[in-house]
Amino acid sequence: MMYPLIFATNNANKVREVQSMLDPSWKLITLKEAGIVADIPEPFDTLEENARAKAEFIYQSTKKNCFSEDTGLEVYALNNAPGVRSARFAGEQGNDAANIQKLLHLLDGNSKRNARFRTVISLLLDGDEYQFEGICTGTISLTPRGENGFGYDPVFIPDGSHQTFAEMDITSKNIFSHRKKAVAKLLHFLSTYHGQSKN
Ligand code: ITT
Questions:
Q1: Minimum CA distance residue for ligand 1 atom 21
Q2: Of 171, 164, 118, which Cα lies nearest the Cα of 139?
Q3: Collapsed DSSP state (helix, strand, coil) of residue 172
Q4: Catalytic residue among 23, 39, 45, 70
Q5: Does residue 45 have an active-site annotation?
Q6: Beta strand 28-30 pairing with 5-7
Q7: In which band, very low, low, confident or very high, does the pLDDT at 2 lie, cut at 50, 70 and 90?
Q8: Which residue's alpha carbon is nearest to atom 1 within ligand 1?
Q9: Where are the domains of the chain?
Q10: In whole angstroms, what is the distance from residue 63 CA to residue 190 CA?
Q11: Average pLDDT, stretch 31-59?
Q12: N or C, which end of the chain has less CB nearby within 10 Å?
């Protein structure tokens, strides 16, 4: 990897996962390492707009190449909710247990439990924006299972597995993961990027 890149996120789990996907030549800089303490706003109704807003917010203060990602869990029986509101589904921002409880309650008695995770990465490189999407389809389990991961991992079973994401270690989650697919597209783009990086 040729460019140092700031990962514009306050979510330590995302940083840990993305770091596990990169080879050591990559220079990923976290907000913490960049000395940035900021509540990054996510005001929009789509993952694409929020991802862009997060990257732009960090670019404004650093003027450095950076990327962000926005992820949502889309449950078909719930008209793709919680979607862009995944982090604050049950009200309070980032309360994983309450979010899972609300989701299971809404699906109570419903046998149609198909869902997907969707990640959108926004990369700001030399002043231009590029987006990369990663999707993982699966189903919502009847009860939470497993201790690993974060967010909705205890109730999400990716297609092709019988385990929830929270029952997998990080390497196994990466075989299926939405985030891994989006990051793979980002890495492929960067490896073929011929622009002159000025930042
Ligand atoms: P940043 O905006 O700072 O990046 P965030 O936690 O607010 O961090 P999102 O806006 O993308 O991130 O919120 C997505 C929510 O969806 C997150 O809080 C989790 O509850 C859930 N989520 C995201 N990725 C997930 C994954 O891989 N497995 C399970 N749940 C996930």
A1: 151
A2: 164
A3: helix
A4: 70
A5: no
A6: parallel
A7: low
A8: 9
A9: 3-198
A10: 19
A11: 92
A12: N
